[in-house]
Write a structure and sequence with these properties.
With 170 residues, the chain is an alpha+beta fold. The protein is 16% helix and 26% strand. β3 and β4 form a beta hairpin. This is Nickel uptake substrate-specific transmembrane region.
Length: 170
Amino acid sequence: MSAGLDTTRKLTRRFAIPFAVMLASLSGCGGSNSGPDIEMIPVSGFVAMDGQPLVGAMVEFHPTGNTKGNGGFGLTDEAGKFTLSDYHSNPGCPPGEYGVTFSKITQPDGSPVPPNTQRGQVEMKEQIPPAYNLFKPHAIIQGATVKAPDSKFEFELDSKFKPPRSFFQN
């Protein structure tokens, strides 16, 4: 084997492996869950349960039908108000149709779960009826249409709401 060919092979290996690693690491990079060409619409709203602002609840918009992206989520404040962002912290949500779910996890006495608590460290209880916190594309209890220039929603939940039996079936 000639010295020139051996040097070429060493240089190729020397640069090919780092280049491949760099390309692999870039493949996961992206600005939003929606892709660069999908518009993000500002989304905000209010959630009440039994006529009172629902404080500290997670609000999630799950895309349905042909809606692009992964939806969005937000946390209600002391007044029951929320704003959505996507899973990369970009404000808003792509336009389209969504199923909306709500969740509020507390300790059994209703007090907040301490920050950074892992499952099993303390007993936890869902404060919102299952029909509101399970996403079922075939049986949407709360829905929303997000459209430009912005979308504002009000959701009224009933703590005693019982969906039809079919809701819990596949």
